[in-house]
Design brief:
The chain has 195 residues and is an alpha/beta fold. The protein has one domain: Flavin prenyltransferase-like (Rossmann fold, 3-Layer(aba) Sandwich). It is built from eight helices and six strands. Strands 3-2-1-4-5-6 form a six-stranded parallel sheet, with helices on both faces. Helix 1 links the parallel strand 1 and strand 2.
Length: 195
């Protein structure tokens, strides 16, 4: 018997909630179950930055958990997952994960991913970065966490902000071993020049 392919997706209050929404949209027609946790500030930022409602985003996920539900399935290591992505990841969430604080379900789920040695990907969003931010990132990177800020790429000649968002969401999924067929993957300098 094989376990279902499950991914924990957390959206926090940093700017860039569109990346989390797009990642969920991309996984809609796949065999990956998405288990969503949104922070209070994620809900506020989502409404400010996008035309989506919280209910619309929650409908994209296979399962949704309240931030305060410390007894949720994702708070146990026996709940098998491919890993977890926090997109976007606020500096508060980064710090809580780096220091083992489990005061909400996002922090607890990330702590479980770390202790079980599963893949944790943080799409950190802040600029400029302070020494504290950098030290927290380095600490987690040394534990095997993938620090993957949502950086745009221009070699694929994006034509819209939507192209940039798609690229970033696909790259985050790549880090978790979920490789979707997206256009404009890098094929090398010769092929790019031939276009």
């Amino acid at each position: 018997m094989t376990a279902p392919r499950r991914l924990i997706v957390a959206i926090t209050g940093a700017t860039g909630t569109v990346f989390g929404v797009r990642l969920l949209e991309m996984l809609q027609d796949t065999d990956v179950e998405t288990h969503l946790i949104m922070s209070r500030w994620a809900a506020r930022t989502l409404v400010l930055e996008t035309s989506c409602t919280v209910e619309q985003v929650e409908a994209l996920a296979t399962r949704v958990y309240p931030l305060t539900d410390q007894g949720a399935a994702v708070s146990s290591g026996s709940f098998l997952t491919l890993g977890m992505v926090v997109v976007p990841c606020s500096m508060r969430t980064l710090a809580a994960i780096a220091h083992g604080l489990g005061d909400n379900l996002i922090h607890r789920a990330a702590d479980v991913i770390l202790k079980e040695r599963r893949k944790l990907v943080l799409a950190v969003r802040e600029a400029p970065l302070s020494d504290i931010h950098l030290e927290n990132m380095l600490k987690l990177s040394r534990m095997g966490v993938v620090i993957c800020p949502p950086m745009p790429a221009f070699y694929n000649k994006p034509e819209s902000v939507d192209d940039l968002v798609n690229y970033t969401a696909a790259r985050l999924l790549d880090q978790l071993g979920i490789h979707l067929d997206v256009r404009n993957r890098w094929t090398g300098m010769r092929q790019a020049g031939a276009r």
